[in-house]
Design brief:
The chain has 264 residues and is of the alpha/beta class. The chain has eight helices and seven strands, in the order E-H-E-H-E-H-E-H-E-H-E-H-H-H-E. The chain has a seven-stranded parallel beta sheet with strand order 3-2-1-4-5-6-7, with helices on both faces. Helix 1 crosses helix 8 and helix 6 packs across helix 7. It starts with 9 loop residues before the first strand and ends in a 7-residue tail after the last strand.
């Protein structure tokens, strides 16, 4: 899917050096958007990723290594994006981490980190992009929530709390921008085979002494009636739609793409 629907726009995608965020960045670039990458990883690999996306899609790219748990670093990233591109037109709040444990065993530092990165970072990026978006009377804020923004699962208290929070924050942002050309929506994926989910697959395979492939099938089958993973490319295509004029009255939605998980 390649076109020019977002030509001249700039998209900042947090947590975009792998997984869902990288898929989103690639598809937005394919539509002509310049990309601000963010995330952790090997510096040389990230530089190659930037160059590859820029060359393949004929767009400009940059990278900022802001730690999304640190407001000062987020502010520095937003300033850098403004200096290089004149501001951010499309904000994808995607950065996230996970930890699995019962509430009474949940490490306090893990709780704090998950809330900071999965929820609070979206507040900081949003508050910093809104003035420019409102001035232009155009902007798209897409929060990557989760099916866990709509339903719960045991042993994921911090993640579920953060993702429910993101859905609520999305609604408030949509209401505050309702009379403008700025929209805010959430995408709520089910199981996507990202590095985060791969860790859960590996842990399950080791714990149950089964193959990686069997662990994948069992994991998906428990929750996702389709029996198939959602792909980053499918999520990216939905993001492109939400950026389009056709979606200008989609405001405050929590759009689940989950193989039927929430339908049960």
């Amino acid at each position: 899917m390649q076109g020019t629907t977002l030509k001249g726009k700039t998209a900042l995608v947090t947590g975009s050096t792998s997984g869902i965020g990288l898929g989103m960045a690639r598809i937005l670039a394919a539509q002509g958007s310049n990309i601000v990458f963010n995330g952790f990883g090997d510096a040389q690999e990230i530089a190659k990723l930037q160059a590859d996306v820029a060359q393949k899609f004929d767009v400009k790219t940059t990278y900022h290594n802001a730690d999304m748990s640190k407001p000062a670093e987020i502010e520095a990233m937003m300033r850098a994006a403004a200096e290089q591109f004149g501001g951010v037109d499309i904000l994808i709040n995607n950065a996230g981490i996970q930890h699995v444990a019962n509430i009474e065993d949940f490490p306090v530092e893990k709780w704090n980190a998950i809330i900071a990165i999965n929820l609070t970072s979206a507040f900081h990026t949003t508050r910093l992009v809104l003035p420019n978006m409102k001035a232009k009377n155009w902007g798209r804020i897409i929060n990557i929530a989760s099916v866990h923004g709509l339903v719960g699962s045991a042993q994921k208290s911090a993640y579920v709390a953060a993702k429910h929070g993101i859905v609520g924050f999305t609604k408030v942002t949509a209401l505050e921008t309702a009379h403008s050309g700025v929209t805010c929506n959430a995408i709520c994926p089910g199981w996507v085979l990202t590095p985060l989910v791969q860790k859960q697959v590996d842990a399950r395979a080791a714990q149950e002494n089964i193959s990686i492939e069997t662990a994948k099938k069992n994991l998906v089958a428990e929750k996702q009636p389709s029996g198939e993973f959602v792909t980053p490319e499918q999520l990216g295509a939905l993001a492109v739609f939400l950026c389009s004029d056709a979606a200008s009255q989609v405001r405050g939605a929590a759009w689940n793409m989950d193989g039927g998980w929430v339908a049960q």
